[in-house]
Design brief:
mainly alpha; about 75% helix
Length: about 260
């Protein structure tokens, strides 16, 4: 996959770390703690950038606020930069983490964990909207979007591992393939055409549409009072679970030969 020139911001680097950690814990309190800390840090950074006008800050969260509001290209670049930084457990590690479970049982557990993690992301953004300070909504939307997409790409990758359908290539190449699978909502082996992410390519256009739609759902989390948090959690959980089931269905069909 050809990658566009992009500069990973602190936001995308931290999003990869948070997406990984929140996916792998089964403690609701820890999920909320991780997401609340991340969302508050993103909002705080945006406020500082807006008031200080510092050039260094402008390359980070202030740029995120401006670009996230102007289109999907910035989000595409940040997701491409984030994806190879996600921590993905291979098949042996997953079997060790879930001893005695079948591939389907492990997949079901991974989907449940990812759905809960995505719900925590939506709830955290919604809670940030009622803080007694002026929040930087566009940055919070970008932050939630990056974390949820990271959670889902990690899920896609680990489902392929569970069913022994690992993509080809080195780690970075495999992660690019899983990013394409996320955009197509299909198993890697079912994607037709090349995995070219050059500007204007079919995959780049599809990825941009998916991310704009994802950011639109993230904006729901910023609704009034706790209704935003509840709606964001519900939407994220539902959509992440649906993605996981779609990928699982493809992989199970491949495993049984049709």
């Amino acid at each position: 996959m050809a990658e566009p020139e992009t500069e990973a911001t602190e936001l995308s680097l931290r999003a990869a770390e948070v997406a990984t950690d929140v996916s792998e814990t089964d403690r609701p309190q820890e999920r909320r703690r991780l997401m609340n800390a991340f969302t508050r840090a993103a909002a705080s950074g945006a406020r500082k950038a807006a008031t200080s006008g510092a050039r260094a800050a402008g390359r980070g969260t202030r740029a995120a606020r401006r670009r996230a509001g102007s289109g999907g290209e910035w989000l595409v670049g940040q997701v491409v930069a984030m994806t190879p930084r996600l921590r993905v457990r291979d098949r042996a590690t997953l079997r060790a983490h879930f001893p005695g479970q079948s591939a389907d049982e492990i997949a079901d557990t991974l989907i449940d964990h990812a759905a809960h993690a995505a719900a925590a992301a939506g709830g955290a953004a919604g809670m940030a909207a009622i803080l007694p300070v002026l929040p930087a909504f566009p940055v919070e939307v970008a932050a939630e979007t990056l974390v949820v997409v990271g959670i889902e790409i990690k899920l896609v990758a680990e489902l392929h591992e569970v069913y022994g359908a690992q993509a080809r290539g080195n780690f970075a190449e495999r992660m690019n393939s899983y990013l394409a699978a996320w955009a197509h909502r299909r198993g890697v082996f079912m994607i037709e055409g090349g995995l070219i992410l050059a500007a204007g390519s079919p995959l780049a256009r599809l990825l941009r549409r998916r991310l704009i739609s994802r950011a639109g759902r993230s904006a729901v989390s910023l609704g009034p009072l706790l209704t935003g948090a509840a709606a964001g959690a519900m939407f994220n959980s539902r959509e992440t679970r649906k993605l996981g089931r779609d990928i699982q269905r493809d992989l199970r069909r491949r495993a049984i030969g049709y």
